[in-house]
Design brief:
By secondary structure, the chain is α+β, with helices and mostly antiparallel strands. The chain has one domain: Protein Transport Mog1p, Chain A (3-Layer(aba) Sandwich), CATH 3.40.1000. The chain is built from three helices and nine strands; from the N terminus they run H-E-E-E-E-E-H-E-E-E-E-H. The chain has a seven-stranded antiparallel sheet with strand order 3-4-5-9-8-7-6, with helices on both faces. It has a two-stranded antiparallel ribbon with strand order 1-2. Strand 8 and strand 9 form a beta hairpin. Keywords: Signal.
Length: 154
């Protein structure tokens, strides 16, 4: 019970702090691939290593959420549908959109929501992968939407 109260108070404090301060957005570009995306640099303030291929991982200071901006070769020249199928996504995906140029999927993984979007251009796949607390899902909606819609690549 004490843990639940502490978590609730921490969430309220974090949400109040985020909503009280404007979010600062930064355009991140992977020089080697031209992958570019707007991301909230005032939320994801810490670098957290490198993904496969090219890019950067970021996380919140409390490590509750993380963002990966990534580009990788599409060696087999797979369509978005085939590429996604090869990743073996969970069978209980909550949101899935697949077009000839991109895919976007989202669902729950334990206590987190994951959102993955990959755009396809030439022989490259340009992706953003976001994980954040499920209990804050609605608070993240606008952030995830802006990140997703800003993703581009050459």
């Amino acid at each position: 019970m004490k843990w639940t109260i502490a978590l609730t108070l921490a969430l309220v404090a974090w949400t109040s702090t985020v909503s009280a301060q404007p979010v600062r957005w930064t355009r991140y570009t992977i020089p080697q691939t031209g992958t570019a995306v707007d991301f909230p640099s005032s939320i994801f303030t810490e670098e957290a290593g490198w993904p496969d291929g090219y890019g950067q991982r970021f996380r919140t200071p409390d490590r509750r959420a993380d963002l990966t901006i990534q580009a990788a070769p599409n060696v087999a020249n797979d369509s978005p549908a085939v590429f996604l199928a090869k990743k073996h996504p969970p069978s209980r995906i909550q949101y899935k959109r697949v077009t000839p140029r991109f895919f976007a999927v989202s669902s729950y993984k334990g206590e987190k929501v994951f959102y993955d979007r990959c755009n396809f251009s030439g022989r490259l796949v340009h992706c953003v992968l976001i994980n954040y607390p499920a209990e804050e899902e609605h608070a993240w909606d606008d952030v995830v939407t802006r990140i997703s819609l800003s993703l581009s690549g050459k």
